[in-house]
Amino acid sequence: MSTNSIDSLLHESRRFPPTAEFSAGAIAKPEIYDEAKADRVGFWADQARDLLHWHKPFTETLDWSGAPVARWFGDGELNVAYNCLDRHVESGNGDRVAIHWEGEPGDTRSLTYAELTAEVKRAANVLAGLGIGKGDRVAIYMPVIPEAVVAMLAVARLGAVHSVVFGGFSSESLRSRIDDASAKLVITADGGWRKGKVFPLKAAVDGALAAEGSTVEHVLVVRRGENEVEWSEGRDLWWHDEMAKVAAEHVAEGFEAENPLFILYTSGTTGKPKGILHTSGGYLTQVAFTHKNVFDLHPERDVYWCTADVGWITGHSYVVYGPLANGATQVMYEGTPDTPHPGRWWELIEKYKVSIFYTAPTAIRSFMKLGREIPDGFDLSSIRVLGSVGEPINPEAWIWYRDVIGAGTAPIVDTWWQTETGGIMISALPGITTLKPGSAQVPMPGIKIDILGEDGTRVDPPQGGLLVVSEPWPSMLRGIWGDPERFRETYWSRFSAGDTWKYFAGDGAHVDSDGDIVLLGRVDDVMNVSGHRLSTQEIESALVSHPMVAEAAVVGAADEATGQAVVAFVILRSDQEGAQTVDEASTILRAHVAQQIGAIARPRQVFIVAELPKTRSGKIMRRLLQDVAEGRELGDTTTLTDTSVMQIITDKLN
Ligand code: WTA
Prior knowledge:
By secondary structure, this protein is α/β, with parallel strands linked by helices. It is 33% helix and 22% strand.
């Protein structure tokens, strides 16, 4: 984040207390903080009992003896899918709509809890018939259609483990995730709708499985795009054919609370994405608790909409597991916000009378740019709570969101959390907290956060430092799939000592004079582009995999629309120089990254340079490149091996 915006965050003086009316009807009451403080572990046990159905009740809440791998509710048993489905039907809410789904071309489907439960039961029978059982890994590569949710819950129902791969990732990225998790089955669709066109998904799966040695036995294909697909007899199966063949009934069995629920790959500081592992009981407890309290969910009357794709953690926790565990009615939309017109999202809010809306700052900023006339053309009066996630929200965007989308009255909850934390960790509670634009504000009840200096001691306001979680929490990651060493090293080595374990989040933060937490962005080589995590090293590896490239350095440069943007500096191999124009080379390399990783990683700019700035020990000085990419005056360059290098780079760019 640029120094300017940090200043504006730290000196924000506007305050928005909750209205008396909102507070009176709110789910969370102020006492909740004291209750959690008095007995943190007991507080989570109460939540687990109140919010979930246990096939076998737990007697032990937290076992931290195997730190940093926690066991929550370890001797209890539950079925995650049963908690999200059957029990709502059994308690008389089977006719409540679970999902109002809207396809991009305008086709719609509404599924009640009874209907969704029936589909998941059949799907569980299909998967069981294909040999999927407890512990098996299933990759899911799908558009945002109801079957994506059905597939995830069917896997969960069997005690198996899903690995959802965002549909925008390339077949190379899909293959590496399938291989890392040794998936037995892939569930996909022929294609999905995006920007008025069908994008093929099955073809990418075929590409991913083309090379020898895959562990995948079957590919289940949902018909959605109606596009032509190639068929591998014996391996590929149509979802609708298989669903028609199986029994309708399926009894959910209880699995131990620590049974793995899913793996979700996310970018780290080194090249290879990490498979973040989440388990069942603690995860479901925290996502249900936070979803209910942060969004003030009244399931009998609210209509909730989280715009995230199910391929990201926000889609897992706040489209699938949190809302469905709480019996919420929600909207799901397949396509992009501007198809076929730039008011599509607002039209959906009007149509379904959405009362709770959860999206990312990057989306809010892009709507701001288009002007308020567009949302003003729709009736948004049903909105009563707004949420933000994925990156710090700048105060201007916060105020616009509240004024234009929230009629100047809706509370905004700015929720800080990560793929690794599983659920929301820092957020206001809308009936309690006096809101402050640009600050995520307070840890959730039952969550212990500290801001530490480089030396590990607590920093006092107004100093900034590094954000750590100081006590284990129910939805914490249980590891990195297949790499316990990397798990300890990445998150636990920096500030832990003896028996004291502190989770290092990778974010810089600051506590202001009111005690509110202001997030300042990543302190490592992870970029945040439109709320999506990307690793500089992963993109550098993609660039150097191209035969034209000798060396590459990637930085995240501040970008008004996307928060950060990928900017690459590339040295071409000497035999390549002059083979193309600089513009041609840059176009080729941008496309190459998109093809290797996915369109979200495509650099905004690729600069072809003669040299890269390095320290005397040979490390690339990313800071300086970031200055160049952001058009700033260059900082101190005295530690460079050759100070003329920067001159060469800036000369070339000007
Ligand atoms: C950033 C997304 C500031 C942060 C749920 C974190 C935020 C990374 C916020 C995790 C927020 C997320 N304010 N920064 N409200 N929410 N972040 O794993 O840098 O995709 O470490 O999880 O996003 O990204 P991830």
